Amino acid sequence: MAQTRQIKLGLSCRYLGYHVAAWRHPDVPSGGALSLQHFLKVARKAEAEKIDMIFFADSVGVREDDLPPGSAARSMKNAELEPTTLLSAIAACTQSIGLVATASTSYNEPFNVARRYASLDHISGGRAGWNVVTSWSEQEAWNFGRDQHFDYDTRYAMADEFVDVVAGLWDSWEPDAFLRDKQSGLFYDPEKLHILNHQGRFYRVRGPLNSARTPQGRPIIVQAGGSEPGRDLGARAADVIYSSAHSIEKAQAYYADMKARVAAYGRDPSELLIMPGVTFYVGETMERAKAKQDLLQQLIEPQVGLSILYHHFGDLRDYDIDGPLPEPKHAKVKSLADSLYQMAQENNLTIRDVYLTVAAGNSGWTIVGTPESIVDELQSWSEKNAADGFNICPATLPNGMEDVAEFILPELRARGMFRTEYEGPTLRENLGLALPELGDIVSRHGRKVVSL
Amino acid sequence: MAQTRQIKLGLSCRYLGYHVAAWRHPDVPSGGALSLQHFLKVARKAEAEKIDMIFFADSVGVREDDLPPGSAARSMKNAELEPTTLLSAIAACTQSIGLVATASTSYNEPFNVARRYASLDHISGGRAGWNVVTSWSEQEAWNFGRDQHFDYDTRYAMADEFVDVVAGLWDSWEPDAFLRDKQSGLFYDPEKLHILNHQGRFYRVRGPLNSARTPQGRPIIVQAGGSEPGRDLGARAADVIYSSAHSIEKAQAYYADMKARVAAYGRDPSELLIMPGVTFYVGETMERAKAKQDLLQQLIEPQVGLSILYHHFGDLRDYDIDGPLPEPKHAKVKSLADSLYQMAQENNLTIRDVYLTVAAGNSGWTIVGTPESIVDELQSWSEKNAADGFNICPATLPNGMEDVAEFILPELRARGMFRTEYEGPTLRENLGLALPELGDIVSRHGRKVVSL
After folding, report:
1. For residue A143, which of B165, B171, B217 has the smallest C-alpha distance?
2. A24, A80, A85: residue with CB nearest B185
3. Are A124 and A89 in contact (CB under 8 A)?
4. What residues in chain A have per-residue pLDDT under 70?
5. CA distance B220 to chain A (A)
6. Domain for residue A450, yes or no?
7. Domains identified in chain A, total number
């Protein structure tokens, strides 16, 4: 009998879960987004359950403060811990779980990013991952001396070069460069030091990085781009893709496209793991699962509901909330706005329907069901080449992780789909990825990034 | 009887101690600069001994890689952990000790610095400090798209504005802004949110910061400037000064000058703590203390000795090592080079003498002695208005901290000069500083930074 295909699992931990009303749930600590103890509780539970990695999305600004009056102050998305500092603290209190933090290529310097993630990889003993994003809101641009965010092409061109610089800096020192020979007085072997000397369109960075090569060789690179340049960057440089798909057909198409792109870059398709985001509402029975979702949906006030759609469709307060959704307007993330509009058209949804749907899963794939029915879907996606694993986006935390442990994992394990022990101490080992050689990330121009 | 004046104590922890040959010492773990466990050992010992704070100097590049051939590879100053990530990890494993990390105003964005230190303050429950530096090496400039470092006036003008922006961002939210009222659905009170809207010569930053006001109100600001603009910035905005002085007379003059400057900014002079750096070699007898120093001095090869002077005096390999020191040339930190040259002139020192002297204490104040003789000096500095406390720069770690615990602290406590228990859980409380109001840091132009 063929062995069941194993899946990888990540847990997205931002704020207090992915439901817009998560903070109002009776079991959720409403101040948790600023509490190390809250996230430690989640991380320890996830580690006890052998989840591959916890993940933090991020923004460098309060994106919600341009919402219509009354809505902004009802949002929990305004105060949080910075993810690399938070994950360093969690690293010190855990042993095996992967730690993936987001950093923007638009509003950081590549040297600082290379350094902070290398540091996190050393501190955690090889569990760091960098989720590469380009940011999307004007609110972020305003915090960095700009009137407007970079246009799409520019910011992706920047990201492309930024990743090359970071990867090149991570290759500054060979694994055995540091001799630290007390007898001879030689601290390192100068033959094993490589100066990057990068001079590109956006960045000039000499190097070397003031860090040794990290326990994972280099931190894992995670990316989420669905657009053409985003897919290209992911196929070229990423180890993991957090994708977004609402149907198995779309997920399969994305999966096939990405694996083909990876191969076109001369990489083995298994070197890139595709992990769609998914939100569960799970219970022993369908009724109980539905009740969990309903409890949260009822906590959404109409003005908060409209605010969910604000960045995609503008101010909808003058529309009939139970009428049809208008076309996207000034959308911040066009692909997302288009897919919401398409969903509304195809299913004849009202404005209220749409915001409730988005709220239920933060516009990602959402499943309401029993452990069996949910794992049936996951297994189907896994076996039909739609996913190598899943990035779980719980509606609420910490109880969302408890639901995963109580309902989802036992069923996955009963079918032989998920580990009972970690494969190793590093994220790379648990993801089944090989230790990279220097220069493993090949730039768009085909040359090795590192100047050996 | 008048109460003995209490002192504050910091511990500088960078690399493996401040002696250039520290890593070759038999009791020093030569790979410790990349090891969380090494620094945790030091931090836990320091906390057990009620030290106010541990401190990490920093650079954003390998400054040593322009040294003459053969010297660079003999330096330990090339690979280290990034201080905010390291201190976040230490925060998770300690309860009371202060955590001060360096970040450069020349090679960071103020929003990112404000955010990371606010995050560290939340994570640590109010123990974060930011040591403000402007950087000084070309090696750092080269990692950030520049051919040369910013000139002195420009980088201090940048630092001045940068600190205002960071302080203003830290004032984004009033202490009770976050209601998180599950019943009403109101997450925060919009009246208690303040948008900075900073538009200056170097920075345009709107805000708000995506963090709540921190446990200390805002993190502690530390600064070390000895120059005119450095002193002015420190007097205006710092809570603690890490000063550098080789004699009590110079320390007294600096202390008096800084306290007067603080008063001129309308602050109470007690709001700024002056803490000179000091390196001890201590033993039960003077002979044992001297033997500790000699052991390290003998581990300095001549080429490493000359490399210590390289950034101040250029390449000295063609000079007689036992002849006189030439005048400073292309000095990176002019004030330091001048003071070394003056020291050599006044004491008739050879090149070898100077590098050995610098090596003994990393060019700071160095005392070799018994517990009694050392604490006599500290007490004298404290009582004669030369210091509010001291920033201990141990020659080696972790054993330098063990020496402090075994020899220095018992003597300080016997004289009633140092605490036996922490005053509170925050660094601010232990330093005896009040919780600040919003807008407590007054900008150079007299106005409050925050736009209330």
Report:
1. B165
2. A24
3. no
4. 1-2, 361-363, 445-452
5. 17
6. no
7. 1
**Binding residue per annotation — A255?**
no
Residue identified by tokens 């836990």 is B44
pLDDT digit string (tens) for B435-452?
A: 999 999 877 765 555 554
Task: Answer yes or no: is A449 within a domain.
Answer: no
Token duo for residue B428: 């601010």
In the 8-state DSSP scheme, what is residue B73? G
Task: Report the alpha-carbon distance of residue B79 to residue A122 in Å, rounded.
Answer: 11
Nearest CA in chain B to A114: B82
The Cα A388–Cα A438 span in angstroms is 26
Range(s) of the domain holding residue A166: 8-430
The ipTM value here is 0.96
Give the CA distances from residue A351 to residues A74, A321, A326, A346, B413, in Å, rounded to whole numbers and listed in that order.
19, 5, 8, 14, 70
The closest of B83, B23, B69 to A178, measured between CA atoms, is B23
**CA pair distance A114, A203, nearest whole angstrom:** 14
pLDDT on residue A312: 87
- Average pLDDT, integer, range B396-404: 97
Does B380 appear as a known binding residue? Answer: no
In the numeric block, which tokens belong to residue B321? Answer: 């090592």
Residues counted in chain A: 452
Q: Nearest CA of chain B to the CA of A240: how many Å?
A: 23
pTM comes to 0.96
**pLDDT of res. B113:** 98
Q: How far is CA B198 from the centre of its chain?
A: 28
Exposure of A440 in the CB half-sphere (CA atoms within 13 A): 20
Whether the CB-CB separation of A76 and A16 falls below 8 Å is answered with yes
Q: Which member of A81, A203, A208 has the closest CB to residue B122?
A: A81
Residue B81 belongs to a domain: yes
CATH for B72: 3.20.20.30
Place of tokens 């070898």: B352
In a domain, B398, yes or no: yes
Is A382 annotated among the ligand-binding residues? no
How many residue pairs from chains A and B have C-beta atoms closer than 8 A?
A: 216
**Alpha-carbon distance A135 to B151, whole Å?**
32
CB within 8 Å of B423: residues ≥ 6 apart: B429, B430, B432
CA distance A245 to A383: 16
- Give per-residue pLDDT as tens, B24-52: 999 999 999 999 999 999 999 999 999 99
Res. B369 pLDDT band, cuts 50 70 90: very high
Q: Which of B24, B119, B174 is the best substitution to test chain A (most A C-beta atoms within 10 A)?
A: B119
Which chain A residue is nearest to residue B28, measuring alpha carbons?
A: A182
Measured between alpha carbons, how far is B376 from B358 in angstroms, rounded to an integer?
23
Per-residue model confidence (pLDDT) at position A333: 74
- Report which residue type is found at B275: M
Name the minimum distance, in Å, from the CA of B420 to any CA of chain A: 28
Q: Residue B129 to residues A271, B240, B447: CA-CA distances in angstroms?
A: 41, 9, 24
* pLDDT at residue B1 in the model: 47
Share of chain B above pLDDT 90, in %: 84
